[in-house]
Every structure is written in C-alpha cells, then in structure tokens.
Please model this.
Amino acid sequence: MDYTPPPFFKRGPAPLVRLFFFATLSLALLVIDARFRYVEGLRSWLALAAYPLQRAALLPFEVGERVAGYFSTQARLVAENERLRAKALEYSQDAQRFQAAQAEAAELRRIINAGERLDLKAIPAEVLYASRDPYAHKIFIDRGAVQGIRPGSPVTDEAGVIGQVTRVHPLVSEVTLLTNPDQAVPVQVVRNGLRAIAFGGGASGMLELRFTAANAEVQNGDQLVTSGIDGTYPSGLPVATVVHIERDADHSFARVLCRPAAGVDRGRYVLVVANESAARPPRPEEIQAGKDRREKSRRAKKAAPVDAAKEKEPEAPKESDAAR
Amino acid sequence: MLPANSAILMPVRLSTIVASFALALFLNFLPWRDLRLMPDFVALALCFWCIRQPRLVGLGVGWMLGLLTDAGNGVLLGQHALAYSLLAFLSVWLSRRILWFGAGLQALHVFVILLIAQGVALLVRVASGNAFPGWPIIVGPIFGALLWPLVTWLLLLPQRRAQREQAI
Model:
C-alpha cells in the first residue's frame, strides 16, 4: 500500500533533520568567525538590523533622565553650578600651564630631534549597552564607520583609558574593555618609568601586570599610564593604580594587580581617540613576516631554480607589502 | 481531545509573533546590571511560540534570532544561533507533551529547555577560550521559568480577547 499524506499535512523535513542542518550551519559559522573572520560583512548587516532595537532600548533611560532633570530642585542646580564653576577655574589654570608645558615639550623634542608629536582628535560617543555575554567585557557605542570611527582607536572617559575599538559597524562600534582577559595595554609606571604590559583580569574587574620581574620596582599606589610605544594608545593616558603585589620566591614573576583608573564598567559618555597613524617603522612581526617570505622564496628558488624566473614577478609586490 | 487548560483560541496573527520577538530583543538589549541574573527573553518567547505554534515558528526563526543576538552582542557569530536552534527543536519536539501540563509543570519543562540552550551557548563560549562565568548563570533560566506563566498569559492575550469579543 502506498500511502502519502495529503499536501495539507506537509510539514517539510523532520525536526531532527532541520536541527542537524541548522546546527551544522551554526558550527560552520562559528569556525569561520573564530578562525578566519570572513563573515564581518554579514555581522555588519545584522548589527545594522539590530540597531533600531538597541536604540529603542536606550529610550526609557533617556526619558527617565529628562523627567528627572525636569524635577531637579533649584538648590541642587545651584550647587552643581558652583561645583562646575570651581572645576572650570581649576581646569583653566591647568590649561594655561598645559599650553606652556606643551610649547616647552615641543621645543625640547625639537632639540633632541624626537619628531613631532601629533595632536589627538577625539570623537565623543555615548555607550549604548553592554554585551549580553556576561564575560565578554565589551560595550557598544553609538558612533560607527559613518562618523569616522576606525578599528583600533583607544577609548577613554574623563578619568582614563577604558578600552579599544575592536569592531566598527556602520552606526555602532564595539569596544573591548581593559578588563577583557585578551586585552593588553602597554603601560608605564609614572614614578620611575618602568614599562610593563597590563592584561585584563576578567571577572575581578582588575588589571594584571604580567611578566613583571619579581624584583621589579613597583609599589602599591603606583600610577600607571599608557607608554605610547605601541603606536595605538597615545602616551600619558591614565590606566590604573597598583593595589596589590604578591612576590613569591617560587615564581620568577611578581603578581601585580591594579584597579582601572577609568569607570570601565560604568559611565555613559566616552571619547574615541582617533589615532592618526604617524610615520612609524614597520612592526617587528611585519619585518619578520617579510623575512620569512623572502626566506621561503629563496628556499624555493634554491629548490627549483627553473621556477626562479616565475617566482620573481609575484615577489615584487610582496616586498613592497613588507616594507609598508 | 484538547489539553485540559487550553480554551479554544483565535488563530494567531503573524504581527503578534513579530511584535513579541521585537519586544523580547528590546528587553535583551536593555542595559541590565548583571546579565547573568536576567532571563533570556528571546529564548523565552521563542520557546513559547515553538510550543504554541510549532508550524509557524521553528528552527529557522530560532536560528535567525540567534544570529541577530550574536551580532548585537558582538560575540562569536553562531553561538546563540546554535543554542536557539536546539531550543527550538526541543520546544517543537515537546510541544504536544508540554501543553498537557499545568502552568507549574510547564515551567519545569521550560526551565530544562532554557538550561540546555544556556549550556550550549556556555559550552561554545568556554571552548572558544573564555572563562567560566560562575554559577549565577543558572539563575537566568530559573527566572525565565518563573516568568513562564506570565509570558503565557501575556502572549495569549490577543487571541483570548478576540475570542471574548466574538462570544459577546
């Protein structure tokens, strides 16, 4: 008996088959995204689709703030005004001193031929929301490629560095916070100029100076600022304060914990510092990669001298790549 | 024969489903203080529609919502997609069974489904090198399950109201 259900009952492939299909698709996407980053375009489109909802999710807070602002008392406004005026006075003194210091620093740098330091441009942005992934340590800001944000720019608030732009979508950007375990910032101790690298401490909300020698001169309360030698972070931005040092004779490295200076997990407004890429020597890994390539092609030439003529042509653009 | 606690409802409108998913995404994007403690509203809505309307909402919808969540949160593309398609599969598969129970036992089923979906997302996250976020992560599915009766009442409201009007 050959019996097929009427098309009325047709439900497409069985759920298990569909599960298999979608699970395979998801796993393929995961691997592609994690290993090759080929799907950034798709991600940008999806982020654009989610943007209205993200924007809408902020509305209740904006309305709440506006209503609260409407009902704020005069006394509080007067107090706040007073405080801001005092602060402005303080800042104006600082600004005057800063101008003098900047001129002096430029003069000194000219004397030692250290090259001009570039002025920094900052784009103000508002934090849209934090990533739902509890330990992603990422936030999203409401400025994107359209407003001229570029990946890699450092992000600060009024107290110091909070992170770095890691992905740029058309209207929003993703900022990886300092506390992300994969995020590293080259820092310098203000007191003695000691260089170190601060890694995110993950859940603790702290930073950790890894690979600091056990006898390194670090004290509790030391201020850490960006050293600026990586070419990504401008130098001198406050990063963290050392709060705890563990020196253990069994380990050759000290464990140094620091508290971020900026409100990494709070605050609504941030500044994206546009890092104008100055004329810099190529990075070590680029040089290394160039060497490797040349080495490889040399070896290939040795192995197959017949192919050497063919090899020469594609090599030229590669070398210019490495030089860049 | 119909499950004990289900009155005859009006057919669902597509706009209701779309609106509920938009609302769920909106709730997920709100800047919550500790995200581990918050239920995943999208998972909850998806679970509801997969149980109530397994022919309209299924794995494809779940997968798309997962991708949207992944892109919106800036995590690896595909982790929520995987979790939500598994969640949709379990909900569609158990839909006939779950509807026979009362609200409490339904919530228990939903808790297990949400927990499995959460677990899959967590597994992907840990496999890709992130730290385990701690046990409070189970609190989200518990809250989700506790919200289940409310979600059921709320999302069936459009269908019920229409029915009452018709009866009068």
Q: What stands out?
A: The first strand of chain A starts at residue 121 and ends at 130. Residues 74-111 of chain A form the longest helix (38 residues). The radius of gyration of chain A is 27 Å. Residues 284-323 of chain A form one domain.
